[in-house]
Amino acid sequence: MGFGHNNVLHDNHFRKDWQRRVKTWFDQPGRKLRRRNARKAKAASLGVRPLSLLRPAVRGQTVRYNLKLREGRGFTLGELKEAGIGRKAARGLGVVVDHRRRNLSVEGKELNVARLKAYKERLVVFPRKAGKPKKGDSSADDLKAPTTRANIPLPAHYIPEAPRKITAEEHEFAAYKTLRNSRAEQRYEGARKVRAAKKEEEEAAKKK
Q1: DSSP one-letter code for 34
Q2: How many domains does the chain have?
Q3: Mapped to the 3 state alphabet, what secondary structure does 60-113 carry?
Q4: Which domain holds residue 97?
Q5: What is the tens place of the pLDDT at every residue in 89-108?
Q6: What are the helix (H) ranges across the chain?
Q7: Is residue 63 part of a domain?
Q8: Which listed site, 19, 57, 177, 181, has its alpha carbon 20 to 30 Å from 42?
Q9: Residue 116, exposed/middle/buried by CB under 10 A (0-12, 13-18, 19+)?
Q10: Are 81 and 172 part of one and the same domain?
Q11: Domain check: are 176 and 137 in the same one?
Q12: If 0-12 CB within 10 Å is exposed, 13-18 middle and 19+ buried, where does residue 177 land?
C-alpha cells in the first residue's frame, strides 16, 4: 500500500509487550460469589429490618424518559407531612428524606403520599424494651404476625388501555389545528383585549 502526498512515514511500534498490559477478567466468578456472600451477611446483620430503604417514585428526566417511573433519592417534607411522618422519625423507620426535592405535580405528590401510607400500614415497630412499649410501637399481635422484608414495589408507570373502536367524535377531532388555534389565541389575547377596549371607548364617545 502506497502513501499519497509528501507525508511523514509511519513509525509503527510493534515491539511493545502488550501481554503485560492486557486487562483480564478471570476473577469474575469469584467476585460474583463474594458479592452474593456480602449480601447474605448484610441481610443477616439487619435482623428483621427491610432489606432496602423506602424511596419515592419519581419520573425520569427529559421527554425521552419521563414516561418511566424510577426510585428517587428521598421523600419531600410535604409528602412526609401529609403522610403523618415526622422528618426525624422517618430516618428511624427506614424512610429516606430529601429536603431539596420539590413537588412539581399533584399526581406525583399523591402517589408518594399513598406509598408512604401503605408502608406505614405494613410497618411493624419493635419496642426497644419488651416490657415497656412506647407510643407508636406495634402491639403484641402485630409482632407475632407473619412479616415480609421485601419493600413496596414501584407502581406501573402507565395502565394499558384495552383496544376499542374509534368514536366519530375522535375521528373528526383535528389535533394539529386545535393546538395551532389555542397557541394563536394565547399569543394574540393581549392585543385583542386592547382592541376590544379601544372599540368600547370609541362607541362610548359616539353615544355622547
Answers
A1: H
A2: 2
A3: CCHHHHCCCEEECCCECHHHHHHHCCCHHHHHHCCECECCCCCCCCHHHHHHHH
A4: 42-144
A5: 998 889 999 999 999 999 99
A6: 18-21, 28-45, 62-65, 77-83, 87-92, 106-122, 140-144, 168-172, 175-187, 189-207
A7: yes
A8: 57
A9: buried
A10: no
A11: no
A12: exposed
This prediction has a pTM of 0.62
Shared-domain flag, residues 189 and 124: no
Question: ∠ at Cα 88 (87, 93), nearest 5°?
Answer: 90
Q: By C-alpha distance, which of 80, 103, 104, 77 is closest to 93?
A: 80
Q: Residue 97: CB partners within 8 Å, gap ≥ 6? A: 74, 75, 77, 80, 87, 90, 91
Q: What are phi and psi of 131, to 5 degrees?
A: -85, -15
Residue 16's DSSP bridge partners are none
- pLDDT tens by residue, 151-207: 889 988 888 889 999 999 999 999 999 999 999 999 999 999 999 999 999 999 988
Amino acid at 70: R
- Are both 49 and 123 inside the same structural domain? yes
- C-alpha neighbours within 13 Å on the C-beta side of residue 207: 6
Residues ≥6 apart with Cβ < 8 Å to 86: 80
